[in-house]
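User: Can you predict the 3D structure for this chain?
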Amino acid sequence: MEKRPITREGFETLRKELEHLKRVVRPQIIAELSQAREYGDLSENAEYHAAKEKQGFIESKIRHLEDKLARAQIIDTAKLESDRVVFGATVVVVEEGSTEEKHYRLVGEDEANFQEGKISIMSPLARALLGKEVGDVVQVQAPKGVIEYEIVDIYFS
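Assistant: Here is the predicted structure, written as structure tokens:
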């Protein structure tokens, strides 16, 4: 089984989602199925079929989350220190021709959220940044062409 890096925060988020599905959503669906059975003939019971479909979706999601958690390799980023970009680092970059600083935290695939500034360790930008230091310039192939970023700071939170 291939391990996947994940921050402690990302792991806890997935664990809480799994617990919510098991303790809250699953019992709700079971209640919906029970209620739908009371409506009679199951072959033409739309509520029953909808609840069964919902149950299948939730059970699939539970299995998927259990698999993610089983493969997780938790990396405690609060204890990391480096002058180079590594997993868990927050990197401050400036795009060539701009003065606007952008902050990106390199995280596991399952916790990436671009709107929050969290990018997957597997993304082209993260791959270009890995191993670099403050002052380095990286080039990233983007849909609009090659973009250059200068690293202006690296920190851990």
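The beta strands are 4-7, 72-75, 90-95, 101-107, 118-120, 137-142, 145-155. The first strand starts at residue 4 and ends at 7.
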